[in-house]
Amino acid sequence: MMKKFGFTLAEVLITLGIIGVVAALTAPALVQNAGTAKIGPTLSKVVSTLENANEQILHDEDATDLSKIAKTTEEYCELLSKYISGSSYETEDFDNSMFQPAPSYYNGGSASFISELKPFYFSDNIFLLICSDLNASLNFRYSAKGSFKGLYANLAVDINGPKTKPNRFGKDIFYFVIDKSGQVIPMGSSTYAWLFNVGASEGTFKYTNSNGLYSCNETTVTTGWGCAGSIFENNFKVIYQ
Q1: Rounded to the nearest 10 degrees, how much is the dihedral formed by the CA atoms of 174, 185, 154, 213?
Q2: Averaged over 128-150, what is the pLDDT?
Q3: 141-160 pLDDT tens trace
Q4: What is the CA radius of gyration of the chain?
């Protein structure tokens, strides 16, 4: 008489239980990794689109300086909306209450200053906040080490919209500036030195790691502002050091 080989019901249930436990433990990490993998390409798309629009604006206006064309944030947003398909903007300052939850830094601190920027609706749920330095209360100082043409606008990019969590700098909100030639520069780039006090001396208030570059971690750059530069200098990979 031949023996029949197979699994008992108990063995099947135990195996399914183990698979369920493993899936429960690994699924959140897989989802997080998948989301993180989209950050670099999304930011790359935004920067490329903005720079192409700026280039076309300057070309059509026969100019080399955006500040000579659009002297206010509203004027700049109006121009961008004409050159970026599917985009729109609002003339009023951004209402911070649109964020759910309110925007915060990488370590959870409040980022209330973001309400001083103008809302610009990009596409694919990408949301921009723009503030031309010509009429901004935010006043940053930049020390160029490259081809920087002078600060034109401050830019915050929310890659999944204001109503989608976590709404944190370095997680789904990333900071850039636009120079007068239309170049979009990621905050935290090692190409430039960034200082937060207009009257500060060179080297003051820098966020740097041991290599002298802007890092993206919770201990050195607690605000998360350096993450955009880190992403662009690591082949569009998110590396929380």
Answers
A1: 70
A2: 62
A3: 555 555 667 778 888 899 99
A4: 23
Sequence letter at residue 143: S
Q: Please report, rounded to a whole number, the percentage of residues in the chain having pLDDT higher than 90.
A: 22
- Which sign, positive or negative, has the C-alpha torsion 192, 193, 196, 202? negative
Tell me how far apart the alpha carbons of residues 79 and 57 are, in angstroms, rounded to a whole number. Answer: 8
Residue 115, pLDDT > 90, answer no
Cβ partners under 8 Å of residue 213, min gap 6: 190, 229, 233
The reported pTM is 0.76
DSSP 138-175: ---EEEESSS---EEEEEEEETT-TTSS--BBTTTEEE
User: What is the rounded distance in angstroms from the CA atom of residue 208 to the CA atom of residue 216?
Assistant: 9
Instruction: Return d(Cα 65, Cα 68) in angstroms, integer.
Output: 6
Question: Measured in whole angstroms, how far is the alpha carbon of residue 2 from the centre of its chain?
Answer: 67
Residues pairing with 132 in the sheet: 153
Sorted by where each begins, the domain ranges of the chain are 36-232
Cα dihedral sign for 137, 39, 98, 101?
Answer: negative
Are 204 and 87 a contacting pair, CB within 8 Å? no
Exposure string (b/e) for 52-77, b if CB count within 10 Å is 16 or more? ebbeebbeeeeeeebbebbeebbebb
How far apart, in whole angstroms, are the C-alpha atoms of residue 178 and residue 142? 12
φ, ψ of residue 15 in degrees (nearest 5): -60, -45
> Residue 121: exposed, middle, or buried by beta-carbon count in 10 A (0-12, 13-18, 19+)?
middle
Q: What's the mean per-residue pLDDT of the chain?
A: 74
